[in-house]
């Protein structure tokens, strides 16, 4: 059995992006697609290499070309499935409602809401809200949740409707891929809401039912239909086992499928009553034709809606773009799929296809992959998915109204006249909050696509962005011209930057806090009873740090620090502080330490002068230090020269004052991380 | 413009130098300043600054410039001045 790996959101997005491309992908491209920095991806790369070996895949890195996944296509498919299925693992509010529905439907008496709230780890008020949502859903099946104060709740309605609701819930929430993994014996792949309710009888019946059905040829053997009939069998067994019988069932139409029901009950040794047999025959009748069934069942719309929602979710994961926020896409796609179910012939897609593939590379393959997962392989034709791609493509180019414009102001030197122009532009166009100036020489350093308009005091070569030549003083007439130009800009203009999700990256924040907590705990101010020889002092320091487990060899460290000092002085002129630092394989953990000397010694300063020093601040990092550690050490170094007051605190402050300074750097980094998201 | 300031360990001298360099650039030169070790010099960089006599820095496209003192604001002001005169006017 294949091991299920716990993927982080970050790992998942990087790998799905790589799986969607055949050739090497530059780091910058991956970084932009998945909203991470190149450094982060480099770091993840090293971690991923090991994990990918389990999948018999190699993550190849070639400088200048980027990353690529190398391995057999079935290994890639296995990885893709694993990544996508792991994304489903976290229970959602929707899962909670389904769980509640399940508990209600399997309750013989009344369900005590207080007790259920406790079992489900939610407050009674949350449960009450969930019940309200449930009412609307149950209503579609003519079911009613009757509440009695102090007693509980129970479901009123026909057993056949209850079963229909359960089958549809399973159909909507059980991904085809996960379902097939489950029936092959992998217990993890059941919908989240089933994980917390007793449903062993059903699960066992599903496997039996599937084993029976797959061995028999029917007219319609697509994944979805097989799943539906299997669910009918599983639900029926679970209901019978729990003592819920059909009152009466007379809807039977198809004699052929009465035989299927009869054969199946004989084969699996579970004799039905006549009503049960007719009911199951009706369900098995679906093996007839998917399209006819779609026409017949109103509730299919509801199932399809959830499936479309899932399709969009999977395409977003594979493609690395959040289509999920787009309600219009979901609506459009649903309408299209439902109407095409009733259409025999689809329009010819030959002319559209090349355009889609040229303008949106990999989009169709992402949709195809997602469709296979959600609807099962080959449920929809390739023709059909070309139309879906048009819906997704429309979402990619959808106009987004921008609140402010960005202008690039250019003059020959990028100094005097462009500064003047910048001020004039800001004065005249308060909506243009982002005004950047550049010299003619520096123009190529800017990503022009990031700007809405370029205003220049000198003639420019033809550029991709609307450009106006103006006087540095920006006359009134020119103001009008610029205004006209702005008005004529398409509303659809978007910057290259994708809108960032407002979700917190708990992993990143967690790593940050964990690192800071450790460094804060390790930090200490130690007074040394020192000699006047630097070598002895450094050896003392090395031994000290070795004892604390921060370095492997105190001797090696002291030699390193001494050498570093000899290359260039480490004292900070005008203070009594020297900044000893190193990055070396023998250093175990990144750390900040301070050592006070009970007698000051003369040391070489950074400006090559010599001055007395009475405190050594030691900053250390291992060769393979984490980015966050290096950033923090850099922040401490920067904070030293930030102000005279800081410098003074670092040179003379108590342990508490030094810790406060370190905490200030940490806070700033956390704030930066939050703002970046 | 991308400026990279290099030092042996990448988190003390170059971090402080980056701060000083930013101060020297203020109002004169618009650039993105990064700092780090000699081996982490990015490909996409226009100007590399490092401490004279510590290392040999080579880059196919960037201007490479060593300074006598990594922590001298005066020296950085002078460098920026030279750059602006040479390339920006």
TrEMBL record, chain B:
Q: Where is the signal peptide?
A: 1-17
The molecular function terms in GO held by this entry are: protein-N(PI)-phosphohistidine-sugar phosphotransferase activity
Any single GO BP term: phosphoenolpyruvate-dependent sugar phosphotransferase system
Alphabetic keyword roster: Signal, Transferase
Question: In this protein, which residues make up the domain named Phosphotransferase system EIIB component type 2/3?
Answer: 3-80
Cross-referenced Pfam families:
PTS_IIB
Question: The organism sits in which domain of life?
Answer: Bacteria
List the protein's name. Phosphotransferase system EIIB component type 2/3 domain-containing protein
């Amino acid at each position: 059995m294949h091991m299920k790996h716990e993927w982080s959101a970050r790992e998942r997005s990087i790998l799905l992006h790589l799986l969607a491309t055949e050739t090497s992908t530059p780091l910058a491209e991956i970084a932009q697609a998945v909203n991470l920095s190149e450094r982060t991806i480099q770091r993840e790369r090293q971690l991923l290499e090991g994990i990918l070996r389990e999948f018999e895949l190699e993550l190849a890195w070639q400088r200048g070309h980027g990353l690529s996944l190398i391995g057999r296509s079935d290994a890639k498919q296995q990885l893709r499935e694993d990544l996508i299925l792991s994304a489903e693992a976290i229970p959602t509010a929707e899962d909670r409602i389904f769980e509640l529905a399940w508990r209600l439907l399997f309750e013989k008496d009344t369900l005590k809401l207080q007790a259920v709230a406790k079992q489900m780890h939610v407050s009674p008020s949350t449960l009450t809200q969930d019940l309200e949502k449930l009412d609307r859903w149950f209503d579609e099946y003519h079911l009613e949740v009757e509440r009695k104060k102090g007693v509980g709740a129970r479901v009123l309605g026909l057993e056949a409707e209850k079963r229909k609701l359960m089958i549809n819930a399973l159909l909507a929430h059980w991904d085809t891929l996960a379902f097939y993994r489950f029936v092959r014996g992998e217990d993890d792949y059941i919908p989240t809401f089933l994980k917390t309710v007793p449903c062993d009888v059903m699960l066992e019946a599903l496997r039996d039912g599937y084993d029976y059905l797959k061995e028999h040829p029917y007219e319609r053997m697509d994944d979805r239909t097989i799943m539906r009939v299997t669910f009918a069998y599983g639900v029926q067994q679970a209901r019978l086992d729990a003592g819920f019988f059909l009152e009466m069932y007379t809807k039977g139409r198809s004699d052929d499928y009465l035989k299927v029901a009869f054969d199946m009950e004989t084969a699996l040794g579970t004799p039905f009553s006549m009503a049960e047999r007719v009911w199951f025959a009706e369900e098995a009748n679906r093996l007839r034709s998917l399209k006819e069934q779609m026409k017949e069942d109103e509730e299919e719309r509801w199932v399809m809606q959830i499936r479309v929602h899932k399709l969009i979710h999977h395409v977003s994961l594979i493609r690395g773009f959040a289509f999920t926020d787009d309600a219009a896409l979901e609506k459009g796609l649903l309408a299209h799929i439902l109407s095409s179910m009733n259409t025999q012939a689809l329009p010819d897609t030959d002319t559209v296809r090349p355009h889609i593939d040229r303008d949106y590379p990999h989009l169709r393959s992402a949709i195809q992959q997602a469709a296979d997962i959600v609807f099962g392989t080959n449920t929809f034709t390739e023709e059909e998915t070309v139309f879906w791609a048009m819906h997704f493509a429309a979402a990619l180019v959808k106009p987004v109204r921008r609140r402010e414009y960005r202008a690039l102001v250019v003059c020959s030197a990028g100094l005097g006249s462009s500064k003047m122009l910048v001020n004039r532009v800001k004065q005249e166009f308060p909506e243009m909050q982002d005004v950047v100036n550049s010299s003619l020489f520096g123009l190529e350093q800017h990503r022009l696509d990031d700007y809405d308009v370029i205003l220049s005091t000198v003639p420019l070569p033809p550029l991709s962005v609307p450009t106006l030549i103006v006087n540095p003083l920006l006359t009134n007439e020119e103001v009008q011209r610029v205004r006209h130009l702005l008005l004529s800009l398409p509303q659809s203009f978007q910057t290259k930057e994708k809108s960032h999700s407002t979700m917190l990256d708990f992993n990143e924040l967690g790593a940050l806090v964990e690192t800071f907590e450790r460094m804060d705990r390790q930090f200490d101010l130690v007074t040394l009873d020192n000699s006047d020889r630097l070598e002895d002092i450094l050896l003392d320091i090395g031994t000290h740090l070795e004892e604390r487990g921060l370095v492997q060899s105190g001797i090696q460290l002291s030699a390193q620090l001494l050498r570093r000092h000899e290359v260039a002085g480490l004292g900070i002129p005008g203070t009594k502080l020297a900044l000893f630092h190193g990055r070396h394989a023998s250093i175990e953990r990144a750390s900040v330490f301070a050592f006070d000397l009970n007698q000051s010694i003369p040391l070489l300063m950074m400006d090559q002068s010599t001055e007395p020093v009475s405190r050594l601040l030691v900053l250390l990092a291992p060769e393979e230090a984490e980015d966050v550690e290096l950033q923090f050490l850099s922040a401490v170094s920067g904070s030293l020269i930030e102000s005279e007051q800081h410098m003074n605190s670092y040179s003379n402050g108590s342990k508490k004052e030094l810790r406060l300074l370190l905490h200030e750097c940490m806070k700033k980094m956390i704030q930066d991380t939050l703002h970046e998201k | 413009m991308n400026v990279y300031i290099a030092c042996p360990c990448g988190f003390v001298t170059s971090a402080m130098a980056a701060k000083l360099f930013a101060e020297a650039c203020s109002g004169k030169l618009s650039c993105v300043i990064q700092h780090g070790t000699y081996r982490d010099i990015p490909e996409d960089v226009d100007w590399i600054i490092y401490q004279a006599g510590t290392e040999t820095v080579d880059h196919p496209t960037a201007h490479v410039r060593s300074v006598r003192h990594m922590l001298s604001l005066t020296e950085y002001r002078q460098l920026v001045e030279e750059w602006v005169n040479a390339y920006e006017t």
